[in-house]
Amino acid sequence: MVVKAYGAYVADKPLEPIDIERRQPGPHDVEIDIAYCGVCHSDLHQVRSEWEGTLYPCVPGHEIVGHVTAVGSDVSRFGVGDTVGVGCLVDSCQHCASCADGLEQYCENGFVATYNSPVEDAPGHTLGGYSQRIVVNDRFVLKISHPEDQLPAVAPLLCAGITTYSPLRHWQVGPGQKVGIVGIGGLGHMGVKLAHAMGAHVVAFTSSEAKRQDALDLGADEVIVSRNADEMAAHAGSFDFILNTVAASHNLDAYTQLLKRDGTLCLVGVPEHAHPSPNVAVLIFGRKAIAGSLIGGLPETQEMLDFCAEKGIVADIEMIRIQDIERAYDRMQKSDVKYRFVIDSASLAA
């Protein structure tokens, strides 16, 4: 099955229209007509070979929302017309301890990413959601129950949403806790919304005074401008949990000093260059932890989608046509978006 897509053949050329091949649905497959696809920073890093190992042609996109157009003979959870999503994973070994626990993102034999993972299908690696259709194993398809008019803003939940939900849930964020969210961007704005919905006292950290009101509007109870030493010092030793969404290298000590005894600073952004080595004494003398978290498994991602539907949570987005993707990348690098671009996949037919 040939479908229209946008991708790149080399790192230093713009994305362009290309035709790609999708497999015919097998017994356990779901074929999805893609309606919307979020634009993640990972897309830009991979397609431009800023991360190693890019396989070309590269078609990015792993925040996919669409409708089922066909199902395999052994698929019972989905039917034609269902509204569904696909996130960062489209397969895993399905037999290791992590997969057995529903933590496919930590598959001990290596998960299959929605794009840029070696597979048998042509052209020898996965191709993502900047395309009209995709065919995915039914175990890696998610049910979406948000209303139709919210679907564009649901797409970023498949990456930005689960990336922040998973650590908040794992560290049992809830009422009575003081929780920090560092960075008010594509990930951070979701972190604020989710932590607020979980009942925590939410404090947003931003390096820009201009984002103070934005953070409050998203649901933060307080806002700290991280460049203001007095504001930071006033909160020393008071946080149960801090979720750090910033991918740029920076001083982690500024945040571990704000944790209570037994508090955790969790990192979800991978910096281009390593963070400066943290002060171990701060950790030892407060039994504090620096941890990390990677997206979420399929059961938790479904839980997140259901939670967001129940609470009326979606991402703040700006819709674009696929023909404007390079402009969107340039703006994204300048943090000139509130807070996620989403591609209207109907534009692929233009």
Task: Provide a descriptive summary of the structure in words.
- The protein is α/β, with parallel strands linked by helices and 350 residues long.
- Helices cover 23% and strands 26% of the residues.
- It is built from 11 helices and 17 strands.
- It has helices at residues 41-47, 97-100, 151-154, 160-170, 188-197, 212-218, 229-233, 253-256, 280-284, 298-311, 325-333; strands at residues 2-7, 16-21, 29-39, 64-71, 83-86, 89-91, 112-113, 133-137, 142-143, 178-182, 201-206, 222-225, 239-244, 259-267, 289-292, 317-321, 340-344.
- Strands 3, 4, 5, 8, 9, 16 and 17 form a 7-stranded mixed sheet that branches. A 6-stranded parallel sheet has the order 12-11-10-13-14-15, covered by helices on one side.
- The chain is globular.
Q: What is the helix fraction of residues, given as a range? A: 10-25%
> Termini, distance in Å?
19 Å
Q: Indicate the CATH architecture of the largest domain.
A: Alpha-Beta Complex
Shape: globular
Give the helix/strand layout.
Layout (H helix, E strand, L loop, with lengths): L1 E6 L8 E6 L7 E11 L1 H7 L16 E8 L11 E4 L2 E3 L5 H4 L11 E2 L19 E5 L4 E2 L7 H4 L5 H11 L7 E5 L5 H10 L3 E6 L5 H7 L3 E4 L3 H5 L5 E6 L8 H4 L2 E9 L12 H5 L4 E4 L5 H14 L5 E5 L3 H9 L6 E5 L6
Parallel strand pairs: 10-11, 10-13, 11-12, 13-14, 14-15, 16-17
Antiparallel strand pairs: 1-2, 3-4, 3-8, 3-17, 4-5, 5-9, 6-7
Concise account of the structure shown:
This protein is an alpha/beta fold.
